[in-house]
Write a structure and sequence with these properties.
Blueprint: H1 2-9, H2 11-14, H3 17-31, E1 41-43, E2 47-49, H4 50-70, H5 77-98, H6 108-118, H7 124-134
Antiparallel strand pairs: 1-2
Helix pairs in contact: 3-4, 4-5, 4-6, 5-6
Length: 135
Amino acid sequence: MWLFVQLSKENRYRRWVPSICCAIIIFAVSIIPLQNRGHTTMGIGFILRMDIILHAVGYAVLAWTIVCARKVGLTDYGEILLILIFVTVFGAGIEGIQAIIPTRQSSITDMIANAVGATTIFIPSVFDCVRQRYQ
């Protein structure tokens, strides 16, 4: 808590608070022991694993909060690629931690969903919309 208070006081670090909070929330939710190994399904004509959608959305939000904190432009491909790699490695690391938690399991499909969510920072129309709204 002290860290968040200090970060929010310093104006230059204030923009990082959403990214840090998002990463902490993703980490906390990912290590909570679950009864059915985290695979919640929804039948809408076919079986849809809701956790895959939640992974993609969560990591998209994390990637976008980092893009906004870094004030990255659409043509900063190196920086965008670095953010994509960081978010994907963060997701893979959490999947690795889940492998040692008895009621959780590591999943390649979850890692792919994390990477797919993070790649939304490469969609130009979404990029422009988000950057204009939060700049």
